[in-house]
């Protein structure tokens, strides 16, 4: 599936992406970096990386006042909008400038592909 990126990075935002964990539907935070009519392009975040996949540990947490570790999944996915929450996660944000720079550079690198 082709990735669509926002030209204006101020449109980027967080939403939950629904997944099933042990038979329960839960929402994992995703940073939406682009969209079209039917899909969002996003980067996922987690508090506990699995053994599968590649992760980058953030200096801060995407939830303010949360001191636990936070990891960015090092892959960009494009998925149907219906798998995401309808509302934005307004209280989620990057709390460390180094993380902002890393993520911007990661997105720029993938836009060129």
Kindly describe this structure:
With 113 residues, this protein is mainly β. The protein has one domain (9-111): SH3 type barrels (Roll), CATH 2.30.30. It has one helix at 97-111; strands at residues 13-21, 24-35, 39-46, 55-57, 71-73, 77-80. Strands 1, 2, 3, 4, 5 and 6 form a 6-stranded antiparallel β-sheet that branches.
Topology:
Blueprint: E1 13-21, E2 24-35, E3 39-46, E4 55-57, E5 71-73, E6 77-80, H1 97-111
Antiparallel strand pairs: 1-2, 2-3, 3-5, 3-6, 4-5
The CATH architecture can be given as: Roll
The portion of residues assigned to helices is 10-25%
Strand composition percent: 25-35%
Mean of the pLDDT scores?
Answer: 93
Give a brief description.
This protein has 113 residues and is mainly beta. Helices cover 13% and strands 35% of the residues.
């Amino acid at each position: 599936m082709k990735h669509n990126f926002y030209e204006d990075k101020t449109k980027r935002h967080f939403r939950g992406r629904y997944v099933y964990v042990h038979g329960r539907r839960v929402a994992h935070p995703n940073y939406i970096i682009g969209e079209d009519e039917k899909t969002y392009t996003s980067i996922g975040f987690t508090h506990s990386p699995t053994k599968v996949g590649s992760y980058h540990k953030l200096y801060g947490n995407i939830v303010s006042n949360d001191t636990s570790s936070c990891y960015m999944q090092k892959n960009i996915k494009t998925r149907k909008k219906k798998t995401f929450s309808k509302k934005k996660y307004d209280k989620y944000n990057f709390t460390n400038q180094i993380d902002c720079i890393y993520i911007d550079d990661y997105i720029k690198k993938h836009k060129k592909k």
